[in-house]
Amino acid sequence: MPRETQKQSLFMVENYPAWFGADTFLLCGSAVHWIVISLMAYELSGSVTMAGWFFTLRGIMSVITQVVGGTFVDRHDHRTLLLVQSGVCGLLWAAMGVLYATGNLTFMRFMVLCLGSSAVFGLLDGTSNAALITVVGPERYAQAESLNQGRDAAVRMAGSPLGATLYGLWNAAPFFASALCDAAAFVCSFFLHLPERPETKETKAGVGSFLHDLVEGWQWVFASRTIVSAVAIMGLFEFGAFAMRQAVNLQLVSTGTDALLISLVNVVSGVATLLGSVVSSRLCDRIPAGRGIIAILAFMAVGYVPLVISDQYGFVIANAILTSLPIPLFGALVNGFVFSKTPVERQGRTRAAVMTTIMLFGSASGAVAGELLPRISFRGFVIAMLALVAVSVVLAAINPRIRTIPASPHWAEVEL
Question: Is 116's pLDDT higher than 80?
């Protein structure tokens, strides 16, 4: 690609503004109600245990739908799927707002609507990423991804305090705000014009071919010992880490911490992630990926130690900073290696298989947190989960397929 084209702003690329608007508004809709979901689950159920099981059910729903999501996205028109995703989710959040405003939102109705949203996102979550490479082309995909990382951190930083503020003004307001964001995403998707995808034999063949593609994609993923090793290690780490994050939220909610203060934890995490992305851009091509992954896992494990010392707000903030700083570099090393070596025609299914399996580990963590927190105390729970995280670090360190992954300039020389 000519150098002057590479320097051209992405917003001058045809269809990119519409794609960016759709993707950003979808993210905004999720960010506004993310922290509110925790508060509402506890408010409607009145139980830490029920709130924990609620998060587990949402995770299970996402896992179930994501199993087929990658194949589904690969076989259908991306613009149509973006319209469906934004339209259906907008209606669900609007319905939740109306039910709460009229005094008819029970915990069961709240759970059903949230599970519906999780199902839609699980099924269609890969649509936006799949559409992006069509819009900008492979030559500028990395540039677009870099922009997305900064955008994502900024939206999450602003979204959580905004959601908490709206929740404080009127509990139904965040849900109506999410519905408006999804409506804006629908409009942007409407103006997104992607090249027509030629019908393939598999697309015409129907359910049988769909199942064949689904199975073939998963078989390819789990035939790779490196991917299997990475997924197992990351799954164990994610279980412990996500359980501790859920425990922090439940602990803060149950002790009456102000919603705005809870949301500020996400702001701090976002700032740390932005700083980490600056470091990542300078290191990701220079350090051996395998050793970098192990070092980052160890650093993040140490980042949970403040929670062992105390559940006070200052220690929660320290934990948020330490565990968020290395996230961009970790993503660049792990995702960069796996997906740079995955054939284009298997990208969707590989992403679905990897993410679904990792989510399967993490989906039970909410229930575990809800069940164990009242029994073994916050500190006891953190110590137990930190032990699991430490095990995952050791497994990564002794696994030669992880430990020997070279720096990115040499990725072409090794097998996946």
Answer: yes
